[in-house]
Amino acid sequence: MEEGQDPGVIGMEVRDQFSYGMACAIDKLCDGSEIVVSRGQAPRIDPRSRDMINTITLNPSIDKFIRVDRLVKDDTLRGSDLHQDPGGKGINVSRALKELRGETHAFGFIGGCTGYMLNSYMVDRDIPFDFMEVEGETRINVILSDDSDNSQTRVSMPGPQVGLKDFVALIDKLIGTKTKPSFWTMGGSIAQGLPQDAYRTLIQIFQAQGVPCALDADGLALALGVEAKPYLIKPNEFEIQRLLDRRMASVADFMEGAQELVSRGIKVVALTLGKKGMIVASEKECFHVPSPEVKTKSKVGAGDSSLAGILFGLAQRKSLQEAARLGVAAGTAAVLTEGTQLFRKIDLESILSRIKVENIITHREDHARQNKQPVKVMDPVCGMPVTKDRASSSVYHQGNVILFCSQACRVQFVADPGKYTRTMAEEAAQGHSRMGDTAS
Length: 440
Hints:
It is built from 14 helices and 18 strands. By secondary structure, the chain is an alpha/beta fold. It has a ten-stranded mixed β-sheet, sandwiched between helices.
């Protein structure tokens, strides 16, 4: 590295080269057909698909839950009540689907002795899986539960190094699966050695084949994955704030954020808010599903259970509202169990009747969408004409989707929206528009 050169820029260059090599390998696997869906639309659920939901975990783990009387530094702690389960977001979704009596198949990487242990756990739980072996050891994560204040301390390990050849081999295996699932779902941390756009690549491949994808990730992996316009994403209250780079506090704030993400081409945003439940947004509606009050024993896997519930409902052809109720019931039931255990179906069924849908907002189709004609509006910052499918980014503001030609314009708008909304109001009075879709 040359003196004075930004190490972050070098990291970006290396990642881009890595991604290019991966793209070339994938292109070869797909018989040379080019996969371009970043500007397209997420596929709709194929009613002919089986109810199978396949999961991908790029960095699986064995999760150990240990209870202690009190967490004290520099002292010997006597642990009790040890639980060990296979972990990682995709695997947790498969575990939850198994409890729902749904069909699932788990894919991912394993390595070393802990990898063999993870295999045995999957066999014990009768969950179909197909893991690829890599060098190194599958990680072990530890959750320490402190009885003195009911807090939990989580130690998450990085996991093994995974190479480009391993990833391409996994993709080859996934493409070759005999049964076309209703969904591919993926999430969690990306294994060391893989580029942060790994989820984007997978989403592009599967959605080009007509299978909708669900993504549950954080940080750069989520931001890049969203660019491929997955059918569904499930951020939590912290992840969506990092993704949209702004603070949110009220349910209304989160509803606005979820609708902004839908305006970027994502079909469904299922935003989990912990004890506040879930906000769900789609092209047609946005609503809040509060979670009933229960006594929390462990939060581990609650979000994964919620994702499994909503996907299971959608795969069963339930309405979005009914699927969301099932998701909230699964997530709520999960906190009733100890350690790394997920929910019990009997708890879910008892909770489901208590869950109601609130704050339903329906969206009207504007004239342009009904006639399938793209509408050109002006970027409120620079005045450049832009259409929804060509917009660099957008912001949901005061009931309107504001489109931008560049990220720089979006940043300026967010810094002082009042300055530009006054200009938009003046131009609207003169018959000009700088706004996209409007929510009624």
